Amino acid sequence: MKRITSTTLKGASAGLMVVSISTAVGAGLAQQAPVEIGVYSGRHYNTDKELYRQFTARTGIRVKVLESKDDAVIERLKSEGRNSPADVLVLVDAARLDIATDQGLFQPSRSAALERDVPANLRDSKGRWFGLTRRVRAVVVNPKLVNPATIRTYADLANPALKGKLCLRERKSPYNQSLVASQMILRGESTTRAWVRGMVANVKQPFFTSDTPLARAVARGECGVGVVNSYYVARMLSGAGGAEDKRLAQQVKIVYVNPSHVNISGAGVTRYAKNPQAAIKLIEFLASPTGGRGYAEANNEYPLRGVGNNPYLKGFGTFRADGVSVEQIGSRTRAATKAMEADGWK
Amino acid sequence: MAALATAERVTAVKGPPPMRRASLTAAVVLVSALALLPVLMLVGYALLAPGSSTLQLGAEGLEQVVNTVVLVVGVGLIGAVVGTANGWLTACCHFPGRRWLRLAQVLPLAAPAFVLATVLVDLGSRWGYRFHGIGWAVLLLSLTTYTYVFLLSTESFSMSGHRQLEACRSLGVGPWGSFRRVALPLALPSIGAGVALSGMEVVNELGAVEMLGVPTLSRGILQRWQGEGDLQGAVGLALIALVMVSLLVGAERWLRHRSRRWNMGHEGTSSLQWQLSGWRCYTAQLLTVVPPVVSLAIPLTWLVMSLDHLQSDSLEELVALTLRSLGLALAAAVVTVVAAVLLAIARRWLPQPFLRQLTFVAGMGYAIPGTVLALALMLIGGPLGLSPLLLLLWGYSDRFLAVSKGGLDAALERIPPSVDEAATGLGCSWSQVLKRVHLPLLKGPMLVGALLVFVDTVKELPLTFSLRPFDFDTLAVRVYQYAGDERVSTALIPALLIVALGLVAAVALMPSLERLGSGADQS
Predict the structure, then answer these.
(1) According to the model, what pLDDT value does residue A25 have?
(2) Least confident of A19-28, A75-84, A175-184, B18-27
(3) Distance from B474 to chain A by nearest Cα, in Å?
(4) Can you name the residues that pair with A66 across neighbouring β-strands?
(5) Rounded Cα gap, residues B183 and B216, in angstroms
(6) I want to staple B317 with a disulfide (CB 3.0 to 4.6 A). Which of A188, B313, B341, B370 is the partner?
(7) Strands (E), B69-152
(8) For testing the chain A interface, which of B57, B60, B114, B126 should be mutated: the one with the most A CBs within 10 Å?
(9) Which residues contact B293 (CB under 8 A, 6 or more apart)?
(10) B426-435 pLDDT per residue, tens
(11) What's the rounded Cα separation, in Å, for the pair B199 and B68?
(12) pLDDT tens for each residue of A265-307
């Protein structure tokens, strides 16, 4: 018995020594090499990099970035599994955030700062992802062709009076998929499908492949009404696309229907993050009023609360969000896409 | 008179027993295994994945297949006509501006189709015209891919040149007759190879067809895989694409087989070209000037219209982007051309039918859409923790192997086996024959192959996009991101840098091609 105890003690002390040596070495290394985290992001704005630099200046944590598309970074993270060098995953669509959550790509985190800065309906209840910015699926109207007052809800877009006047982007757009998914939650499957069919009957073919040309077509009177994310029109108004683009944007009116479909971009700590503490610090920074403003302003998006200081967004007025949760949108996106396909949304 | 011979069937070069070629065999098996592994991985993954379903094309899938076929055929026809005409005109005729126009033919290839499509759609939406649909897609893709036919055929025209022309002249055959009755049949293998390459490029095209709203197989694959999470469906569609490309490759080989001729040595063209004058001269100039001008005019029109709000990355960033694109493209060109020479030579030297089939199948990587190949490589590299750059190079060489191999195969077939047999008879090993006989004779197609791989890599998107490491954007990636965000004003400068890189590569290589044509004359 005595022998066993002494052996155990010896073993334990040897183990402790190893642990303490490795801890010491680890601490030494940590002091020498600065902490570095990897970010996989579905966003790509040059100002984002400036934000990451600010974060590094504040915390000393270096940030490596891979900017891509939501679907592509999700696939990459999945295939890399434990070997992934990514600590943070940033996605720009509610449905994609939900898909990534379902596939176990995030790990839960707790952060008092995030619970304070991110409204509860814009973050995962288990702390797997946190919203960073909001974008509204708006109706863009040419007042010369369509009276903006006649558009009060998305349902009004199926009004036969708009036949040949409605312009829509293709089904492939995640924004449209999430819009239809949210309508399915709010209005049920059959009403939503009737609405989709009504809109498709109104559409001036062919479907658009991007939002900006659609907004221009509305401005030029080729369409009377269309559905776009409001930041595209804000960008045109800012003059980023030139004086002519700005003039075109001034011809249209942005209508926020009541309630409006609000999509989000958000981030979470990856399941196999090597540096989860540093990762959550970055998310805290991006969700903080300072960092968050930068993230939102880069793309004329809405910050997590209020309208922010963006003059173009202020000009669009206020909106009331439909309150559909990200999880709900995610759960219906596939069904929504199938229904859109079946009902002729190209 | 040039020694032209027609062979009934292909025979491997006779010589020392196959044992001596063990190192070649090993190299071929290795290269082919690396090339085929991603495809096998993918098929295995699709078969083993739970809930396997049979492929259901549906109305949408059918539309995607039909559109893809229409694109391949349309682009192939236009590309064959324009590429061959310009190839012959700039190689065998003399007219003012010929040299520059010959060089300029590479421009359209250097302009990525998705950039042109994005710019057209953006310009159109400012002017109130909608660039949309398959007609525009055919025109645009013809513009950006006819250069494959041009490069391969012009190389063949300049190689098989001058004595034929001499013969034609002494028999009283004019320029048109000499083209139709002599030069064209001889160049058919190269033209076929070029058309097949452009077809594969078309099957793979994603960005441009997305912008123009044309549902194609490559879009369907991505949609099913990432949009609907239906990997088996995606692989099923990818297999249809693979069949289409196999048909293209098969057709090209059949064409080549039919017109198998060997040409002793290479002859120059510089001293003897058809002098074009009058309307013939103007037609030649018009034909050769329109495609490069259009491909440049599209982005330049945009540039001029947008000078007031053109935005740019910092100079430092642009240099970094350019250097990364350049480095990757150079590395990919070298690796791919070496692999292609190995496979092409092996097809000639190794008697085992299995190995020869293997070299054929190994070139099929081009058939796999970039996004799918990227997925396969991620499945291999992810669990093994392979370096992203290594995976990226692997992907490039897999995908572009056919690009460099097509021209090599066609060129090798012009070298009569008697040359190899004479060399082996004199005691040379395959590697010595390669070094002393084949490589010098293959310099032209190798350069063309390297140029094509270089330009293709600079433009390449799906692989680079999916596999690159942290903080490693390239020009193409940046252009695609900006264009995807509908920020054309920021996308344009990196886009023009892509065109510039392609042009620099072309300018660097063209003199050697021209010399190749004329060098033998002086010897």
Answers:
(1) 44
(2) A19-28
(3) 12
(4) A40
(5) 36
(6) B313
(7) 93-94
(8) B126
(9) none
(10) 877 777 777 8
(11) 10
(12) 999 999 999 999 999 999 999 998 877 777 788 788 898 888 8
Amino acid making up residue B62? L
Amino acid, res. B317? E
Are B60 and A217 an interchain contact pair (Cβ–Cβ within 8 Å)? no
pLDDT of residue B55: 61
Which residue from B7, B25, B32 is spatially nearest to B346, judged by alpha carbons? Answer: B25
- What six digits make up the tokens of B390? 């290594």
Per-residue CA distances from B360 to B211, B252, B348, B514 (Å): 34, 12, 12, 30
Residue A23 above 60 pLDDT?
Answer: no
Q: Is B45 on the interface with A (CB under 8 A)?
A: no
- In percent, how much of chain B has pLDDT > 70? 86
Sign of CA dihedral A259, A263, A264, A270: positive
Distance of CA A136 to the CA centre of its chain: 11
Q: For residue B478, give the nearest of A68, A212, A294, A232 by alpha carbon.
A: A68
Residue type, B407: G
Q: Summarize pLDDT for A184-217 with one digit per residue, the tens.
A: 999 999 999 999 999 999 999 889 988 889 999 9
8 A C-beta contact, residue A165 and residue A172: no
Q: How far apart are CA A264 and CA B95, in angstroms?
A: 61
Alpha helices in B15-97 (DSSP H): 22-48, 58-92
Better pLDDT: A191 or B167: A191
In contact, B400 and B451? CB cutoff 8 Å: no
Selected residue with higher pLDDT from A4 and B74: B74
pLDDT band at B515, cuts 50/70/90?
low
Q: What is the mean pLDDT of residues B199-207?
A: 86
Closest Cα partner for B256 from B167, B334, B195?
B195
Q: Higher pLDDT residue, A95 or B16?
A: A95
- Whether residue A79 and residue B379 make contact (CB cut-off 8 A), yes or no, is yes
* Helix, strand, coil shares, percent, chain B, to 5: 80, 0, 20
| Rounded Cα distance, A269 and A107, in Å | 6
A90: tokens are 């940033």
Q: With an 8 Å Cβ cutoff, is A23 touching chain B?
A: no
Alpha carbon of B137 to those of A286, B144, B219, B295: distances in Å? 41, 11, 14, 14
Question: Which of B124, B309, B484 is nearest residue A242 as measured by Cβ atoms?
Answer: B309
Beta strand B4-6 with A253-255: parallel, antiparallel or unpaired? unpaired
For residue A153, pLDDT over 80 is answered with yes
Distances (CA, A) of A63 to A74, A282, B222: 19, 9, 30
Which of A74, A75, A207 should we substitute to test contact with B (largest number of B Cβ atoms within 10 Å)? A75
What's the confidence (pLDDT) of residue B259?
A: 55
Q: How far is CA B305 from the centre of its chain?
A: 32
Minimum CA–CA partner of B374 in chain A:
A76
Q: In this structure, what are the phi and psi dihedrals at residue B6, rounded to the nearest 5 degrees?
A: -115, 130
Q: Select from A39, A77, A79, A331 the residue whose CB has the most chain B CBs within 10 Å, as the one to mutate to test that interface.
A: A79
Q: Which amino acid is at A23?
A: T
Q: Judge contact between B146 and B83, C-beta under 8 A.
A: yes
Q: Shortest CA distance to B522 belongs to which of B300, B191, B270, B220? A: B270
Could you give the CA distance from residue B227 to residue B18 in angstroms, rounded to a whole number? 51
Mean pLDDT of A90-101: 90
Q: How far is CA B87 from CA B63, B83, B105, B163, B248, in A?
A: 34, 6, 9, 18, 21
- Cα A22 from Cα B152, distance rounded (Å): 62
Q: Which residue of B has its CA nearest to A78?
A: B382
**Triad B165, B167, B173: Cα angle to 5°:** 75
